[in-house]
Amino acid sequence: MTDTQSNLPLTAAYTPLDARTFHSSALTRGPWDPGHQHAGPPIALVCRAVEQAAHEHGLTHIARLTANLLRPVPIGDLIVEVMTDYVGRNAGHFSAHLMAGNKDVARFTALAQRESPVELPAVLPGHPLPVAPLAPEASPAANFPFAGRAVGYADLVETRIARGEFWRGPCAVWFRLRHPLLEGETPSPYQRVAVAADSGNGISAVLDYQRYSFVNSDLTINLLRRPVGEWICLDARTALGADGGGLAESALYDAHGLIGRATQSLAVRSRAS
User: Which of 158, 160, 154, 157 lies closest to 140, judged by CA?
Assistant: First the structure.
């Protein structure tokens, strides 16, 4: 598999040009426009930068990451800037900008926490936490409906369906990266979650994407603990309002059980209008 523009092998979503500048490969391409990225990879790229900033303060758990998607993210060179807003004893608040050229394409806030073992009572209401409907090894492989049209996000990730069916309402899907986020670097568990979490509105779609668009302008990921392993499951559902709004909600799992939730605000439009 090669990049048709550069004729170079496609081995990662991004190649670093310097400490804060990254070149996007065709593996980041989304389903809505051939020149735009799926939001998952650039959100993960910013997550990586936030992790690095948080680790400088001994904060190793990303408890929340919110992405405000201002514009479509073009396939090209991206600049990531992270600011430390406040760091206390057990938590730190960070913000970040994602830029293409001289334009902000997304802004972020994040909460990082210090990990510290706590001995919990043997019996707690609502515990043990739920697990995904099926384990990844028991879930059949499946491809996104847009796979094969052009090199893109569907080639970056491997998917297996734990419950339901793509774009037919509530659906649970396991995601695993086929290629690293960054050339020569193993992605962190948090980056794996970020790559997958923006797909909740797609896998649980209730509208025909050829007749409607249902693009999200934000994504919030909340995690109760550090994810484990390569596989991340989204158990997603979409709810729509009557005035062009909607909400996609995903329960997030690793192979050991629930790790958190993700939400996306949707703008629903008819393609005919």
Answer: 160
pLDDT at 117 over 60: yes
CATH superfamily ID and name for 14-115+133-270 = Acyl-CoA thioesterase, double hotdog domain (2.40.160.210)
Distances in whole angstroms, Cα of residue 77 to Cα of each of 25, 36, 104, 109: 9, 12, 13, 22
End-to-end CA distance of the chain: 37
For 81, other C-beta atoms within 10 Å of its C-beta total 13
pLDDT for the residue 273 = 59
DSSP summary character for residue 54? H
- What amino acid is encoded at 51 in this protein? E
**Phi, psi at 61, each rounded to 5°:** -115, 125
Over pLDDT 90: what percentage of the chain?
A: 88
Say if residues 163 and 20 touch (Cβ distance below 8 Å).
no
- pLDDT at position 93: 98
Rounded Cα distance between 1 and 212, Å, is: 31
Sign of the C-alpha dihedral computed for residues 26, 27, 29 and 34 taken in this order? positive
